[in-house]
Write a structure and sequence with these properties.
The chain is mainly alpha-helical. The protein has two domains: 142 residues, no CATH class; 156 residues. It is built from 15 helices and no strands. The longest helix is centred in the middle third of the chain and has 43 residues.
Length: 423
């Protein structure tokens, strides 16, 4: 039995089908966009927890991967998380109250330190600026500044207390961190098996590069910040620097997580506090310590810890951190550099390159040199008048010889000297 032959679709319906296809496509895109916006709006906190857990799992990856060679990966993840939690609890038990008290005192003392710094500048430069005049120029009074400082101190304390008291949020974050870290190899394979073979290679390459760049960067920065903060805290406490614990943490975190200029910003604040204290020599001691530590760290500690983490141009790393801060706040500033390093590494692998040959350079020189020579000649000759550029009657454009053609001179002008036809 032969299959029934379907009637051909009329030409008018063939023209109508793309219109309805495009219409339903637009409707589908709008519905999908509305659904994604609804999920992002209602589930923003959960998405944030998952993203932060992903980056924390990447930060734990170097330690977990080493332990996983001797034990199960889940056990290795649990040991790393327990050790990190114990270290945080030990720090808070030993210095938590001191840190909060010094932070509040430091925030409320900022206006006084600023006034002392301005007085020192006036004494050194011989100027007569006043703190009130400078504040009036920007429309802020001293009372307003004190209120702002107190509000900032209360806000910082509220953030710390909120992080410590939000047990549910911490539990959710740790839950995601554990399962993402413990199942990272399985998750990698599960996602890759659901892609076409031609997409598996770039996906797995991006996964491994992200693990190396992002995980290595975060882990290296955490280790370097811890070493820097611990050493700075010991030195600041020994020399008697006020607010030594918050300033030590500031020095370590800013120096490591703010690219390029973080080293200068981190040491500038402790130096200012030392200069405006009762003994200005404290600022000099802090400055000497900062310079010495950075030299030792750059030559000995950092190359061993962050050798494979990030290799970016300073301008690119600074721009990535700035863009991440503008888009996603503090977390974006911290993660902007490793994410940019991952993107640059992917471009280095998959972008197509072409050789720059000598023939290309010769063609460029042939195109540029004549124009350059004409420009130089025009500049040397000076401005050209319209009379000089206009063609003369003695040498018309259609007669390159200038002799007036075989018929002799035109318009009563001969080819002889200028005085032949004047008589």
């Amino acid at each position: 039995m032969e299959a029934p032959v379907t009637a051909p679709i009329p030409p008018d319906r063939l023209r109508d089908r793309p219109f309805w296809h495009r219409t339903w496509l637009v409707v589908g895109v709008l519905v999908l966009s509305a659904f994604v916006a609804f999920v992002m709006w209602k589930g923003a906190s959960t998405i944030y927890y998952v993203i932060m857990a992903w980056f924390l799992a990447l930060a734990m990856e170097p330690a977990v991967a080493k332990l996983a060679t001797r034990m199960k990966r889940g056990l290795a993840t649990g040991i790393v998380m327990i050790l990190a939690g114990l270290a945080l609890l030990a720090f808070m038990a030993a210095f938590g109250a001191l840190f909060v008290n010094q932070l509040i005192e430091f925030a409320t003392a900022i206006p006084g330190m600023a006034a002392d710094a301005l007085e020192w500048v006036n004494r050194v430069t011989g100027s007569n600026f006043t703190f009130e005049n400078l504040l009036d120029e920007v429309g802020v009074s001293t009372a307003d500044l004190a209120v702002y400082a107190q509000e900032a101190a209360l806000y910082l304390v509220g953030v710390v207390v909120g992080l410590l008291s939000s047990a549910f949020g911490i539990f959710v974050l740790l839950f995601f961190v554990f399962y993402i870290s413990a199942g990272m190899p399985l998750l990698r394979g599960w996602l890759a098996r659901r892609m076409k073979p031609e997409l598996q290679v770039p996906f797995l390459a991006a996964w491994d590069l992200t693990k190396i760049k992002v995980g290595g960067y975060i882990a290296a920065r955490i280790v370097l910040a811890s070493i820097n903060s611990a050493c700075s805290a010991v030195v600041f406490a020994l020399i008697g620097l006020p607010y030594w614990l918050p300033l030590a943490l500031w020095t370590g975190l800013v120096a490591q997580f703010v690219p390029n200029i973080g080293t200068y910003i981190s040491i500038a604040l402790p130096v200012l506090v030392g200069l405006t204290s009762g003994d200005p020599m404290l600022g000099i001691y802090v400055l000497v310590w900062g310079i010495a530590y950075q030299q030792v760290e750059n030559l000995t500690i950092e190359p061993r810890i962050s050798a494979r983490a990030v290799d970016l141009h300073p301008a690119v790393s600074f721009g990535a951190a700035l863009l991440g801060a503008q888009l996603f706040g503090l977390s974006g500033a911290l993660l902007g550099v490793p994410v940019a390093a991952t993107v640059m590494a992917m471009l280095e692998i998959y972008k197509r390159r072409y050789e720059l040959t000598e023939a290309t350079e010769d063609r460029v020189a042939a195109l540029v040199a004549p124009r350059t020579e004409r420009g130089e000649a025009r500049d040397a000759a000076g401005p050209v008048t319209a009379a000089a550029e206009a063609p003369t009657d003695a040498a018309p454009r259609d007669d390159p010889t200038g002799a007036g053609g075989a018929d002799g001179p035109r318009d009563g002008q001969g080819g002889g000297g200028p005085g032949e036809h004047d008589t």
